[in-house]
Amino acid sequence: MAGISAALTLQANKKSFLIFGSAELSDKISKAEKIHNYPGFSDVSGKELVSALKSQLLDANIAVVEEKVTGVYALKEKFTLLTDTGKQYEARTVILATGVESIRLIEGEEAFSGRGVSYCATCDGFLYKGKTIAVVCTSKRLEHEIGYLADFAEKVYLIPMYKNVEIERDNIIKIQKMPKSIAGGLRVNRLIFSTTPMEGIPAELPVDGVFMLRESVSPAVLVGGLNVVDGHVQVDRNMATNLVGCYAAGDCTGRPYQYAKAAGEGNMAAHSVSAYLK
Ligand SMILES: Cc1cc2nc3c(=O)[nH]c(=O)nc-3n(C[C@H](O)[C@H](O)[C@H](O)COP(=O)(O)OP(=O)(O)OC[C@H]3O[C@@H](n4cnc5c(N)ncnc54)[C@H](O)[C@@H]3O)c2cc1C
Predict the structure, then answer these.
(1) Relative to the CA of 98, which ligand 1 atom is closest?
(2) How far, in Å, from the CA of 1 to the mean position of ligand 1?
(3) Residue 101: is its pLDDT beyond 90?
């Protein structure tokens, strides 16, 4: 919602921009059964709101670039963005509107980020050729990334956090239990479960790496040097972060997690970007 709102305002302000994400927009909108507190709609379903937003974007000639941003690097007066397709983009400013991931971080995940914990199959998959990895996947939409990893790894322990898992491969072993922690030395070397004998799941699995496939990447992982407190990007009234030219809006800046707040902050961030560029 925040990203869409920002995009509409940037378009109105005649700025040149790209919006990254999914053409299906946000799961958090489409999954809402009934929305009662969004201005202009008294009793709308999430699917109806998504459909209205899609037509609004179409009318405004805004197409979502269907790539997941995997890294944002602040350089002198510009940013470089990398995506899961291996492409690289440059921008004068960035608005982070990633939402928040409702699935909590696993113990050890942040500590081992970049040392065996990865968030991007297409960026890091080749590093695990012939190795054993675990893949925690939170969305069916990301199943193709599991297939990509299984092409490289010798063995994949798949921990799906969604229903109707379709992917089947000889080297994929499914485990229906969230791990307790990720452990290792210099790099990840095992995944730990708190299990009961009845569950038939080993207490720990030896792994060379752990992929966390989520729809959104936590801003702290995405942008080096970003000021993040308790999982929320710190912003001022203009939605500016501590990095010059980098703004944030929506759930990622903190509670309440609401559409109207996300839309308002997206709008404010876009105006701040326009003023900054001027
Ligand atoms: C079931 C449900 C019902 C709800 N009902 C209500 C309600 O009735 N009223 C209300 O006000 N709020 C409701 N909410 C809360 C509301 O959904 C959120 O507050 C709102 O969607 C936040 O908007 P956002 O733009 O910050 O994030 P999101 O809507 O989560 O959008 C973030 C988008 O960014 C994409 N993204 C993230 N990281 C990346 C990346 N690295 N690269 C590319 N794309 C990325 C994500 O895939 C997602 O599409 C509900 C939430 C849920 C889950």
Answers:
(1) 37
(2) 6
(3) no
Nearest CA to ligand 1 atom 52: 28
The sign of the dihedral angle between the CA atoms of 246, 99, 166, 152 is: positive
Q: Could you tell which of 1, 18, 28 is best to mutate to test the pocket of ligand 1, judged by most ligand atoms within 8 Å of the CB?
A: 28
- For 2-101+217-277, CATH number? 3.50.50.60
Q: Which atom of ligand 1 is nearest to the CA of 251?
A: 26
Contact 79, 72 (CB under 8 A): yes
Cβ atoms of 83 and 254 within 8 Å: the answer is: no
**CATH code of the domain made up of 117-213:** 3.50.50.60
Type of residue numbered 85: T
CA of 7 to the centre of ligand 1 (A): 15
Lowest mean pLDDT among 176-185, 217-226, 254-263: 217-226
Q: What is the pLDDT of residues 115-146, one digit of tens each?
A: 999 988 988 899 999 999 999 998 888 899 99
Q: Cα(4) to centroid of ligand 1, in Å?
A: 11
Give the three-state DSSP class for 136.
strand
pTM strictly above 0.90: no
Residue 151 CA to ligand 1 centre (angstroms): 32
Condensed to tens digits (0 to 9), the pLDDT of residues 198-238 reads 777 888 999 999 999 987 778 888 898 999 998 899 999 99
Domains 2-101+217-277 and 117-213 equal at CATH topology level: yes
Structure tokens at 238: 């203009």
Q: Domain ranges in the chain?
A: 2-101+217-277, 117-213
